[in-house]
Amino acid sequence: MAARRRDAFTLLELLVVIAIIGILIGLILPAVQAARETANRAACANKLKQLGLALHHFHSEQGKFPQAYNEYWNFSEPKESPTPPDPRPRKSWATFILPHIDQKNLQDLGILSAQQNLIHLFSCNSDPRSLSVSTGGYYKYLGPQFGLTSYLAVEGSAYQIGPSNTNLNLEFGGPKDGVIHRSSDTRIVDILDGASNTLLLGERPPSPAPDFEWGWWAWSAYDSALAVTEHRSLLTIGCPTPNLYAAGKVIDPCDAHHFWSVHPGGAQWVFADGSVKFLKYAAVDILPALATRAGGETVDLTNH
């Protein structure tokens, strides 16, 4: 009786199958990643819309948009400054809208406790790092930890260059031609350039892990607020200047100086009419005009 023949793959056939599977994975994986990014970008845009709505709710209640931050350097005593100290507590715009994003319980805790919390609405889905908390790095003496934000207020067109590159100059020489800036009290009627042509918020990922030293939602300049142009390398010595709207890297601390996002090709922005638009990095030339509330500029958003 003849022996039964066992069917099996030859080594060559097996290698061909493996090669085909590898090619298919190579073709499918980019499509899967693109689909995931599309979903994350849509979720990110939805969060920005909610923040824009919260800012308008604050305006309806208070008759103005919240300040970006004020002159206080801590929560009790004002630092010496060339201008009278602001009597309001040192809070970011994000802390003022907490009741309007269902986080009144955090506001009731007080800012020193609230700042330690991660708020998902402030975190872009495309950047998983933003779902972490900062332990403060060099600034850990300010608190045990700090919640992060992917979204910053647009203070204006550019930080002014003062007599020195000190933190004092940063705080008191910052731009004031935007809607939400240092100690601002801007009303809708003050936006003479038109709400649909004026920026409120933009994307910028927190600075590199593991310290995440910049990007705290409860704090001020470079954390939760930024101008669209920065002429100094104040955060990290040796960073190039000027710092403009351009693609960045999550591992480069210098990229904390400018707006950008982990979305390919550009970032999403909230305008003063509450709309959210994705602007390509080619829009760098028109951003200063979009950042001012009453500059009188004419801006064409076509192809941007």
What does it look like?
This protein has 304 residues and is α+β, with helices and mostly antiparallel strands. It has one domain (13-291). It has six helices and seven strands. It has helices at 11-62, 93-96, 104-109, 111-114, 167-172, 287-291; strands at 133-134, 146-147, 151-154, 199-203, 225-226, 266-271, 276-280. The chain has a five-stranded mixed β-sheet. Strands 1-2 form a two-stranded antiparallel ribbon. A hairpin with a 4-residue loop joins β6 and β7. The longest helix is centred in the N-terminal third of the chain and has 52 residues, at 11-62. The radius of gyration is 23 Å and the shape is globular. The termini are far apart.
Which sequence of SSEs, written as H and E, runs from N to C?
Answer: HHHHEEEHEEEEH
Average per-residue pLDDT, rounded, comes to: 84
Percent strand? 5-15%
The gross shape turns out to be globular
Low-confidence stretches: 73-86, 162-172
Radius of gyration: 23 Å
Terminal-residue CA separation: 79 Å
Percent in helix: 25-40%
Oligomeric state of the chains in view: single chain
User: How do the strands of the widest beta sheet line up side by side?
Assistant: 5-3-4-6-7
For the secondary structure, the number of strands is 7
Helix-strand makeup class: alpha+beta
Q: Please report the number of helical segments.
A: 6
Reported for the largest beta sheet, the result is: 5 strands, mixed
Number of domains: 1
